[in-house]
Amino acid sequence: MSQSGLYLLKLAFTPQGGAVGSGSMTLALTVNASTGALHGQAQGTIHEGTQHPQTFSAQVSGAMHSTGFGSIIRVGSVSGEAGVSVPPPAIGMYLAPFSASFGLDADWNGQGQFSVGSDTYKSDVKRADD
């Protein structure tokens, strides 16, 4: 990996091919360059079958590794437990298993997916600018 020490990484997951009726999220991570350890937070929105999208937030941990193969030079995955909002007219939230994985090129662009509960969302991934 090009950085050294501990650095911040923010990745945006958007619906693959701009698909409607899916989910999107942002991963805000600290990366330990020497070990590949990832720690941070996922926040996103699920747009499925309702005019009121569900939001979720999860504390995550995982790892990212360099591949040395072709154009995809980094692969990573994180997991945790997401707090998911319940759409109106109900009020509240529930906990669901969360996981995300991604493959990135030298420009921090690539493909990935994330799962909230039993639902999986294929995504385009890019480094998010603040």
What does this structure look like?
The protein is mostly beta strands and 130 residues long. The protein is built from no helices and 8 strands. It has strands at residues 6-15, 23-32, 37-46, 54-66, 74-85, 93-104, 109-116, 119-127. An 8-stranded antiparallel barrel has the order 1-2-3-4-5-6-7-8. Strand 5 (74-85) and strand 6 (93-104) form a beta hairpin. The radius of gyration is 15 Å and the shape is globular.
Total of DSSP H or I helical runs spanning 4+ residues:
0
Measured distance between first and last alpha carbons = 21 Å
Supply the helix-strand structural class. Answer: mainly beta
The main pleated sheet reads as: 8 strands, antiparallel, barrel
The residue ranges in which pLDDT falls below 50 over 5 or more consecutive positions are none
Please trace the helix and strand order, writing H or E for each element.
EEEEEEEE
Number-wise, the strands total 8
Gyration radius, rounded: 15 Å
Order the strands across the largest sheet as they lie in space: 1-2-3-4-5-6-7-8
Shape: globular
Share of β-strand residues:
over 45%
Keywords:
mainly beta, 0% helix
Short summary:
The chain is mostly beta strands and 130 residues long. Helices cover 0% and strands 65% of the residues.
List the topology elements.
Elements (H helix, E strand, L loop, with lengths): L5 E10 L7 E10 L4 E10 L7 E13 L7 E12 L7 E12 L4 E8 L2 E9 L3
